[in-house]
Task: inverse folding
């Protein structure tokens, strides 16, 4: 199964990540500017949006193929975040020690 036709998807509109998938899957747009990615809740919300997009784009095929597709979409989505947003997202995913 061809996981992604192109990993060269571009940030089409500032508040939305555009992820190109296989020809049958199309493209996913993931809004993120409304989230505080530096918070655990904001990072979790982005994770949920990415997971939802991956489920839509990775339908069919074998379970192993879907898992690889899901991982590729997650990696691409995070890589398309602008640098500062990516840093905030990483901070939001790291639990603070008490």
Result:
């Amino acid at each position: 199964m061809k996981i992604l036709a192109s990993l060269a998807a571009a940030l089409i509109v500032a508040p939305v990540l555009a992820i190109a998938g296989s020809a049958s899957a199309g493209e996913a747009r993931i809004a993120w500017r409304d989230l505080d990615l530096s918070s655990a809740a904001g990072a979790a919300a982005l994770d949920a949006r990415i997971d939802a997009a991956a489920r839509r784009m990775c339908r069919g095929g074998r379970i192993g193929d879907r898992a690889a597709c899901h991982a590729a979409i997650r990696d691409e989505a995070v890589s398309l975040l602008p640098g500062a947003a990516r840093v905030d997202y990483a901070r939001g995913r790291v639990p603070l020690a008490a």
Notes: The two ends are 45 Å apart (CA to CA).
